[in-house]
Amino acid sequence: MKVVVENNQMEKAIKDLKKKLTKEGFFSEIKERRFYDKPSVQRKKKQAKAAKRRRKKMRRI
User: Fold this and answer.
1) Sign, CA torsion 1/29/56/17
2) Are the C-beta atoms of 28 and 42 separated by less than 8 Å?
3) pTM above 0.90, yes or no
4) What stretch of H or E contains 45?
5) What is the 3-state secondary structure (H, E, C) of 46-59?
6) pLDDT tens digits for 32-56?
7) If we measure between CA atoms, which residue out of 24, 1, 31 comes closest to residue 13?
């Protein structure tokens, strides 16, 4: 991942980097890996995410 700094605008570059990382799911991945989850809890979270995606997709249609 690359962010170009133009005219010494560090704030804009940091903002762009954060936007790219958020879009890639970096922060959510860090948050998920912060603590250990048992395999059963992981399955439940995975199913909940899938259900949320399905509901979101159905809303668009």
Assistant:
1) negative
2) no
3) no
4) helix 39-60
5) HHHHHHHHHHHHHH
6) 899 999 999 999 999 999 999 999 9
7) 1
25 DSSP 8-state letter: T
Residues 6+ away with beta carbon under 8 Å from 34? none
- Nearest residue to 4 (alpha-carbon basis) of 25, 15, 23: 15
pLDDT, one tens digit per residue, over 1-36 is 888 898 999 999 999 999 999 999 999 999 989 999
Token duo for residue 8:
């010494």
**Residue that the structure tokens 């605008």 belong to:** 9
